[in-house]
Amino acid sequence: MIKFSVIIPVRKINEFLKENISYLKQLAYENFEAIIITDEEEKFDFGDDRFLLISSGPIGPGEKRNLGASKATGEVLAFLDDDAYPRSDWLDKAAELFSDPQVYAVGGPAVTPVNAKFMEKMSGRVLESPLASAGTIYRHIPGKRVEIDDYPTVNLLVRKVDFDRVGGFSKEFWPGEDTKFCLDLVKSKGRKFIYDPSLVVFHHRRSLFIPHLKQISRYGRHRGQFARLFPETSRLPAYFAPSSFLLGLLAGPVFCLFWPFLWQLYLGALLFYLILLIWEGHKIYEKDWSMSGAFYVMAGIFLTHIVYGSNFIVGILKKPKLKLRGVDKSTGNYLGG
User: Fold this and answer.
1) Domain of 200, in residue numbers
2) DSSP H helices in 80-176
């Protein structure tokens, strides 16, 4: 019977983590341990000897995962974020997949919790939109089983022997340490790994608008940097599309002043984009029966494109600073986005 080591990096014990722990205890599959890594030494009564709490100092999530992996006794490492929690059959499904010795890593969808508050839910709807997430939409809603070469550590499982072979996560990047890790894995194995839609966790979203956009800005900068450093998985057309849209939006009127015949093309493109936004809003209205939700999502998609596109350009031009998320010292909850 496969033993799993669930590894959760967190700055400080918070309400999301407590929720996560409660769901881990409800897993049908019992042969696992959970290793939680905080900045400072803390005390918490898990009421379950499968849980281990260790401290690391104020280091990045990748380094914390490496520390957790060094303490792990399971043959498969299951990486999970503190603000995500698994469906009850999560490890049952994982055990089925890893029963095949050829499977070395698996990623699964991280969906919006059903009890999410309105603005968190609307942030989730933005991420679930193909207009916003394009080819990565399967990360946010279950898609078909495919082979992948890049996946976030909100729901990523890998054999410990393969984790150790590539030396774990890079200390240099956050976010993006998972992208670099996956690239190292794929290069080491010479083949891609699996995305399986049955491996479900529920992932809390940053609320629209400011927290959501702060997170998107970090993603944009890291992907821009990686498009420069690691073209194998980051120099893809979909990642350049928001920047192209932003540059076209700003430069279009300038070109039209010199070549007036371009106004028709420019305005036509804007109209087409507006139609796509309205269509996405219509789908939200049909799904949630909320007119305000439809407008929030339309605005959220547009601002996601602008913020991601501008920060992608910044990431190409200069190395982003590694800055950890701030926390409320009294509650452990994260500040901002």
Assistant:
1) 4-206
2) 90-98, 118-127, 130-133, 160-165
- pLDDT, residue 171, reads 84
Domain for residue 299, yes or no? Answer: no
User: Where is average pLDDT lowest: 124-138, 224-238, 243-257, 297-311?
Assistant: 224-238
Tokens for 194?
A: 């699996």
Residue 332 pLDDT > 70: no
Asked whether residue 287 is domain-assigned, the answer is no
- Asked if the structure places residue 225 within a domain, the reply is no
- Write down the pLDDT at residue 165: 96
Q: How far is CA 18 from the centre of its chain?
A: 20
Neighbour-count burial of 162, counting CB atoms closer than 10 A to its CB (0-12 exposed, 13-18 middle, 19+ buried): middle
Question: What is the pLDDT at residue 335?
Answer: 59
Residue 29, judged by CB atoms within 10 A of its CB (0-12, 13-18, 19+), counts as: middle
- Cis-peptide, bond into residue 142, ω within 30° of zero: no
* 331 pLDDT more than 60: no
CATH code (residue 36)? 3.90.550.10
In angstroms, the CA 249 to CA 252 distance is 6
